[in-house]
Amino acid sequence: MAEIIMPKMGDAMTEGKVVRWYKKAGDAVKKGEPILEIETDKVNLDLEAENDGTLSDLSAKEGEMVPVGGRLALVLAAGESAPAAAPEPARRATDKKDSIKHTTGEYGEAMEMKGPRIDRAAAEPSAAPTAIATPAPGGRRRSSPLARKIAAEMGVSLDQISGSGPGGRIVASDIKSSKPSSALRAPSPVATGEGKSIPLTAMRRTIAKRLSESTGPIPHFYLTVDYDVTNLLATRVQLNEVLGAKLSLNDFIVRAAALALRHHPNVNASWGDDAITQHGEIHIGIAVSTPEGLITPVVRNADQKSIADIGTEVRTLAEKAKNRKLQPNEYQGSTFTISNLGAWGIEEFTAIINPPNVAILAVGAAEARAVVTAERQIVIRDRMKITMSCDHRVVDGAAGAEYLKTLRQYVEQPVRLLL
Amino acid sequence: MSEMSYRDAIRAAMMEEMDRDANVLIMGEDIGIYEGTFRITAGMLKKYGPKRVIDTPIAEAGMVGTAVGMAMLGLRPIVEMMTVNFAIVAADQILNHAAKIRYFSGGQVDIPIVIRGPHGAGVQLSAQHSQSFESFYAHFPGIKVVAPGSPADAKGLLKTAIRGKDPVMFLESAALYGMKGEVPDDPEYTVPFGQSRLAREGRDATIVSWGRMLQLSLIVAEKLAKDENIELEVVDLRCLRPLDMEPVYASVSKTHRGVVVQEQWKPFGPGAEISASINERMFDELDAPVARVTGEDVPMPYARNLELLATPHEEQVIAAVKRVMYRE
């Protein structure tokens, strides 16, 4: 039995390549007959059989690199059989790109491998820009360096963002458009059976796009009403007497706003890239100022709670807010927000929408004012101005006005709030 | 200021410097009696005589070798190549001698030579006469590479080249010779090397260019501003070596997108160097890979329609801009 091994053809040679086999396993070979062609960094040459016999145990495929001294094949003499488990020589596949030492021999290899290894998509990045819409689940999210930088600055996780770039790449505009919801980390309220998703129509998308371009991520518009709250103030006095409570005017407004939302699910909603979500439940966020800034604790299912319960809950939440004791579930998940600066004597103001809400009420102070009645008499009535900020992507002018019309019924006929 | 063609601005720069300094001279093929293949040297033989306006044999290596010797002895030769392509014949003199002698002499000997001539494509001179050599020369230390993109820069940069201490490859865009523009008359007007210029302020993407491609980029910028409300910022490099990337970095930090427009072939061209430099410095500012608009990877065809197809044109620049803006 004789081994054919990779010869060392020069001091610098560490390995050689099998170019082609002239014989296959089982072929009879004669001494001096060429068995295979090898290639080194300098030459190509044939390796010959050193004795007669049968070729066996071909250990390397054509194109494979074999270290110097590594076995290429065995030539078995008559009657010999191959050893049961001849140890394989350590071998490096030609396509393994792990070497930082570049002997000259590898240039030839690299040239040959270039053909099959060409990746057309990689070579021509513009050729297949949007072939992969989304990355594989659990796969690495493609994102631009700028997008990653902005996301890090905003504390936004890329996992929550879908990329609009080639191959699903997350680009800066994707992060920016996700800003409101992600930045506030407000989870969407859980929709109940009554909630529904309304797919965006082309017209709705266009309205959203145009308006967003004109005023920023949320296209605001404002509707101001002047309600007569004379009866509401009287009801409040009576109720406080009966209950021995200290209900605020705002507690009534919260209930009124919540009840009115029942009639207008399109205002109790959120904007999404693909659909508008109308929430099945009504959770009212109450803007509370604290030394650190503004926070909006949430009265959940406010439309199902009495004014007294709302009052108690709001005061508890406000106290927690001022002591920074609010739990996330106490300030997340609102579907609508009320901001009341009446206590500061503000007559009227406009509020910025609290995403993902699509509307917010800015409630001014109740004041006695001279009013001209339908009978053209001047009377003194208690009045309150409320300005509703609407996200025009979801709530159009008439829709906002309809809501305020319903709200007027609750505010001006406060007995409805007690039902 | 006078309105002047790119061609006349180059001649004005040479004549002003020849008036200013008796050591400045020019040599080249057919530059004297014939007044230059592109009429750059019109009237110069008559004014300065054959000692300073020298018609040479067709022997570029000899021309540059002679100029190196002149420069070593204190003259300031300008060598006009009939096209910059022919300087390849003199590459050893340029790269192994002119670019090395100060280094070899321990700083004792400067080589103030300007090698200038028409460069690039656009005038139907076919494969051997239309090539771009920015990266070929800018690769080597010891030599400066200048590529003016306007008449005013052609004059100001050439005067800086003639007054300098270094060998300069002065790459004139053959297709811009007829371009007119305002050029300062002041004989002391120069444009320093290594100061890239903000040629157009913008917002949405940064175009980096020079030479004739600068003019193409500016045309595209106006078109996109008018048609698509895209405001391109355009940086004119002016010099490939020394290369001033600071205005590019400043612009990319604003737009977060870059497009390099070069006439040269794509592989190993200046766009590769510029793009890599942006990656090294501005990685976190990039919202898209830097795009390259380049000439087609073929020898330049003679036929007019094919030449136009083989050099960058508006549609390609617009497509690249939209690609980096994700507006495809």
Give the helices and strands, then pairings.
The complex is a heterodimer of chains A (419) and B (328).
Chain A: E1 2-5, E2 15-21, E3 28-29, E4 34-39, E5 44-48, E6 53-56, E7 65-67, E8 71-76, H1 104-117, H2 120-123, H3 145-154, H4 172-184, E9 196-199, H5 202-215, E10 220-228, H6 230-243, H7 249-263, E11 269-271, E12 275-278, E13 284-286, E14 288-290, E15 293-295, E16 298-299, H8 307-322, H9 328-331, E17 336-340, E18 359-372, E19 378-391, H10 397-412
Parallel strand pairs in A: 13-17, 17-18
Antiparallel strand pairs in A: 1-8, 2-4, 2-7, 3-6, 4-5, 6-8, 9-12, 10-19, 11-12, 13-16, 14-15, 18-19
Helix pairs in contact in A: 3-4, 7-8, 7-10
Chain B: E1 2-5, H1 6-20, E2 24-28, H2 44-48, E3 53-55, H3 60-72, E4 76-80, H4 91-98, H5 101-104, E5 114-119, H6 126-129, H7 134-138, E6 144-146, H8 151-163, E7 168-173, E8 180-183, E9 197-200, E10 205-209, H9 211-228, E11 232-236, E12 239-241, H10 246-255, E13 258-265, H11 270-282, E14 291-295, H12 304-310, H13 314-324
Parallel strand pairs in B: 2-3, 2-4, 4-5, 5-7, 6-7, 10-11, 10-13, 13-14
Antiparallel strand pairs in B: 1-8, 6-12, 9-11
